[in-house]
Amino acid sequence: MATLSNFSSFLLIFLCFSLLWTVESRDFVVNQLRGSNYYLTKEEHWFNQTLDHFSPTDHRKFGQRFYEFLDYYQAPKGPIFLKICGESACNGIVNDYLSVLAKKFSAAIVSPEHRYYGKSSPFKELNTKNLRFLSSKQALFDLAVFRQYYQEYLNEKYNLSKAENPWFVFGVSYSGALSAWFRLKFPHLTCGSLASSGVVLAIYNFTGFDQQVGDSAGPECKSALQEITYIIDEQLKVDGKSVKSLFGASKLKNDVDFLFLLADAAAIAFQYGNPDVLCSPLVDAKKNGTDLLEVYAKYVREYYLGSFGVSVQTYDQQHLKNTTPGENSADRLWWFQVCSEVAYFQVAPENDTVRSPRIDTSYNLDLCKNVFGEGVYPDVEMTNIYYGGTRIAGSKIIFTNGSQDPWRHASKQKSSKDLPSYLIKCHNCGHGTDLRGCPQSPLNIEGDAGKCTYPDAVQKVRQQIIQHIDLWLSQCQISGDNDDEPNLFLSAQRMISSS
Ligand SMILES: *[C@@H]1O[C@H](CO)[C@@H](O)[C@H](O)[C@H]1NC(C)=O
Ligand SMILES: *[C@@H]1O[C@H](CO)[C@@H](O)[C@H](O)[C@H]1NC(C)=O
Ligand SMILES: *[C@@H]1O[C@H](CO)[C@@H](O)[C@H](O)[C@H]1NC(C)=O
Ligand SMILES: *[C@@H]1O[C@H](CO)[C@@H](O)[C@H](O)[C@H]1NC(C)=O
Ligand SMILES: *[C@@H]1O[C@H](CO)[C@@H](O)[C@H](O)[C@H]1NC(C)=O
Ligand SMILES: CC(=O)N[C@H]1CO[C@H](CO)[C@@H](O)[C@@H]1O
């Protein structure tokens, strides 16, 4: 399953789903960008978070890691940007487009790690029973409690009492959904939200994912990918070993785990704005009669497993059963959220599929059962009842989507009152493209306009985002209960014009 967001932070922020998580946790970007200012800060802070927000009798706490970056903050009245970390270890505050926004608005950036991921695990063993407090609902409550804690912490730092700064929340992919949901459930705690590629609609059979991969690929590349899928399905019947070894994936005993890796490998090129790295050689090979399988295997080995940094074990159900917390537990943890709350099963559509038809609903349900045991299944309907899906009844939430991103069909793609939605259209516009730049992979801080087919598409939406943030901060009247206390709110408009 392609994870949602896991490329590192940007990634982190972005990778969503299939791989949503995986990559981020590997810090591969950090290796790529060694020497550059990839993180604004990696200095850890800790907060004692409530384990179960919904129990009146369980008062246990766990340590939640967070980061703060105050270099651009105009004390004591500047806004506070809450950057939500999603389904992977959160190793710092990544220096992406949010830092440009923070500078512009003289904002502080704070970023708590998502419960259970990275170092914020409440348990030493991640068995199914211990995972029962892992949900988006608990995570949203964590954010609310953290927000109150941090406001007080900042007040103490500046010798203020009951002051309230204006807050704004940000997230990409799954954390983009959390960003939208936070504004929905706790509107009094934030002036607005940016949900970049926010997957607010839980989907059971997510066939639209594969369909978008096909559409993004275009007819020639799509038919080459389909031919490859057909050949591999046939070869698996006769000699699975050699075909798996061609892709460097001999470890995967389960054929469908292997097929899922191959499907994700193709999806990621579109998800992260790098379609040509996949499609150009395939279309050439088709024209000049080169073996398609060889060419695709080279892409998977060198790009997906190589420079992109995904590990084969991510797809190995044996690995997913490992209950020891650590950097690599993100794979298991995200699957738990998939299997219990949001599904997003990236199954093959009946017609015209790019991925193998063996990647079906049963494969996903069997995986859930194999990895977590009987009784864990995604109650997608409840999730959408709780949040509203694309009918989310919130306000002051910006939705952005990249035109090539297979995940966009789980986001809100139509504007409605107080909920502007923007589609960023270009050849390289993938997941979280507004915050990560264009293309998103290889990662370039703020993007590399030179490698983007239509950088204006990204820039224009960024201008819209700035206008919304500016307006909503200026309309925000967060004040404490005590009206005698000074209201520290400062108009963002003034902040912008003064800088
Ligand atoms: C968290 O709780 C522990 C144990 O009660 C305590 O020692 C520590 O100071 C607390 N940390 C914070 C940041 O409140
Ligand atoms: C807060 O008050 C303490 C004690 O009065 C003082 O030492 C400190 O400098 C003050 N801090 C700020 C930021 O004003
Ligand atoms: C998902 O697809 C499976 C297999 O085609 C089908 O049996 C099931 O009813 C579908 N579920 C939903 C909720 O659409
Ligand atoms: C055919 O295309 C492939 C993929 O781009 C390339 O590696 C190969 O060298 C080409 N072969 C010929 C004979 O042009
Ligand atoms: C299946 O897909 C093809 C190609 O996209 C399309 O022409 C055809 O109408 C589709 N058939 C059905 C039954 O949807
Ligand atoms: C606001 C916006 O651009 N929405 C578009 C998002 O994508 C869908 C599907 O392509 C379009 O129908 C919307 O108009």
From TrEMBL:
Keyword field: Glycoprotein, Hydrolase, Protease, Signal
GO MF terms, alphabetically ordered: dipeptidyl-peptidase activity; serine-type exopeptidase activity
GO biological process, one term: proteolysis
InterPro entries: AB_hydrolase_fold, Peptidase_S28
Pfam families hit by this protein: Peptidase_S28 (PF05577)
Signal peptide segment: 1-25
Gene Ontology, cellular component aspect: vacuole
PANTHER family referenced in this protein's UniProt entry, alphabetically: PROTEASE S28 PRO-X CARBOXYPEPTIDASE-RELATED (PTHR11010), THYMUS-SPECIFIC SERINE PROTEASE (PTHR11010:SF11)
Family recorded in the similarity comment: Belongs to the peptidase S28 family.
Protein name, per record: Serine protease EDA2
